[in-house]
UniProtKB/TrEMBL annotation:
It comes from the Eukaryota. The keyword Membrane does not apply. GO terms for molecular function: hydrolase activity. Residues 2-205 form the Serine hydrolase domain. One of its GO terms (biological process) is secondary metabolic process. Keywords: Hydrolase. The keyword Hydrolase applies. GO terms for cellular component: cytoplasm; nucleus. This is Serine hydrolase domain-containing protein.
Length: 231
């Protein structure tokens, strides 16, 4: 049983400090039996503050996004920047990502599978992935070769992520993208938990949602560590 090193990617209009706070309870609970480590990679595009955090964090701070969908080249750039970050700061065993950060992570994982599936299966960029309230992952080929944004679709693209995954979202989240991303991940390694809330990361205020989230994350990690789900 070895500890895992996670890359953490925040949501749009937040920053590393916000994401550290948002995931504090989840990370603490995940670490109850193993002391995993976490590195946070901040977006480079300064943007307006996410509305849902206005009462919790100072308006005077800077807030960031990873990309702007109206500019597909910004998604191409963040994928290249993220690969450089992983080379410099990694390797990472897993990724913990929320909303736009989850879209970036999933797009990178899909890109590597499409580029060289045999190599990615042998040495995946992440051995597991935790996606919370995920935004839409894009087709990396359309981005790179044509500069167009096309959302990946399991009906067209199949299962493009083969490592174990955990998918957490709220039943009140208006977006269908978290479910869409789950469908793009290998069924045998897919661990899903749907809580009663909205587009948020379960924390200490929501005991039941936090417990359910921790359960699927630990299952996902165990699958990555042992190749199976412990009974």
């Amino acid at each position: 049983m070895h500890k895992m090193h996670f890359l953490c990617l925040h949501g749009k209009g937040t920053n590393n400090k916000v994401f550290e706070a948002q995931t504090a309870a989840l990370r603490y609970a995940i670490n109850s039996d193993q002391h995993h480590t976490y590195d946070f990679a901040e977006g480079a595009l300064e943007t307006t503050m996410e509305e849902s955090i206005r009462d919790l964090f100072p308006a005077t701070s800077s807030y960031y996004s990873y990309f702007d969908l109206s500019t597909p080249s910004s998604m191409v750039k963040v994928l290249r920047d993220l690969e450089r970050f992983i080379v410099a700061e990694g390797p990472f065993d897993g990724v913990l990502a929320f909303s736009q950060g989850a879209a970036v992570a999933a797009t990178l994982m899909a890109q590597r599978m499409k580029r060289d599936a045999a190599q990615e299966r042998l040495r995946p960029v992440f051995k597991c992935a935790v996606f919370v309230g995920a935004a839409a992952p894009c087709d990396p080929i359309e981005l790179e070769e044509h500069g167009r944004v096309r959302v990946l679709d399991a009906a067209v693209d199949g299962e493009v992520i083969e490592v174990p995954t955990a998918h957490i979202w709220g039943e009140q989240d208006a977006s269908l993208y978290p479910q869409l991303l789950a469908g793009l991940c290998r069924a045998e390694g897919r661990n899903v938990y749907v809580h009663e809330g909205g587009h948020a990361i379960p924390g200490s205020q929501t005991d039941e949602a936090l417990a359910g989230s921790v359960r699927v994350v630990k299952r996902c990690i165990a699958m990555a560590q042992y190749g199976q789900v412990p009974r």
